[in-house]
Design goal:
272 residues, Immunoglobulin-like, C8orf32 fold, 29% helix, globular
């Protein structure tokens, strides 16, 4: 009887131990889920097909500086190496409760860019487009008779600035501390013709990139408020543009030159 009690006690101990360990078994991942085959082009992908529905983040470390991106498990997420050539460490984190995350995979890669603009011309997780989706097709329609990069930028700018509206309801939600853990859906934004600065910047960059124009999202402060805007590479240099500013205007008159929409750098403080 005592022997049976001891066996039962061991069984119960193992059962309890398993109940504590098994929930974290899903945390297992491998560095192979971080694909850096395109590092020479300035970007990488993450694909983690477990933990569906769980919040996850990708962390990119360069010279001690960390940049975090939201990642949706079960998808192929594409992200850029934005700091130029050098050694990067990419890690995948899984939410384990509240605001706590645990690292489940990591990989270090040495990036030697062939084309410094390549990473700003590809479809990524936050700047999504393709030749056959609504974003790519609309941009192609707007730029069908245009060849110069600055002319394409102006056409896309005029379209968004005149046809879209600012989502004040969602902005209020974000300012209240909600809705911050999301990635813009450029096709949904195009369909709704509505968004906050992050949404509008993501769509503008996606439409420009789909037309072969290097574009990026810049973040920082404007008039003391956290903000997102764009920079595009035209005429051999980066110029900054804030489409959201004109989206917010009640009346908008189409511009003819990119010089008409370049924003004064002194009014925008870019986040490093």
């Amino acid at each position: 009887m005592k022997q049976m009690s001891r066996i039962l006690g061991v069984f119960l101990f193992v059962l309890v131990l398993c109940s504590l360990v098994l929930p974290f078994s899903a945390l297992a991942a491998t560095a192979d889920e971080i694909n850096t085959d395109h590092a020479a082009e300035g970007w990488f992908t993450v694909e983690h097909n477990a933990d569906l529905g769980v919040k996850m983040k990708v962390c990119v470390v360069f010279k001690g500086e960390k940049t975090y991106y939201n990642y949706t498990p079960g998808t192929v997420g594409t992200f850029s190496f934005t700091k130029g050539p050098g050694d990067y460490t990419v890690s995948l984190y899984r939410n384990v409760g509240g605001s706590s995350y645990r690292k489940i995979a990591t990989k270090t890669v040495s990036v030697k860019e062939i084309d410094p603009l390549a990473q700003y011309k590809v479809s990524t997780t936050e700047i999504t487009f393709s030749e056959t989706d609504s974003v790519g097709m609309k941009a192609a329609e707007l730029c069908s008779e245009l060849k110069a990069a600055d002319a394409k930028v102006v056409a896309i700018y005029n379209y968004i600035a005149s046809d879209f509206e600012y989502d004040y309801d969602f902005a209020a939600k974000v300012n209240a501390g909600g809705g911050t853990n999301y990635v813009p859906d450029t096709n949904a934004i195009l369909e709704a013709k509505k968004g906050v600065c992050y949404d509008i910047s993501a769509l503008f960059a996606a439409m420009c990139r789909s037309q072969g124009v290097a574009a990026r999202i810049d973040r920082g402060y404007h008039n003391g408020q956290y903000h997102a805007w764009n920079s595009v590479y035209v005429g051999g240099a980066w110029v900054s543009i804030d489409v959201t500013a004109d989206v917010c205007h009640t009346v908008f008159e189409a511009v003819e030159s990119i010089d008409d929409v370049v924003i004064p750098a002194a009014e925008y403080v870019k986040q490093a």
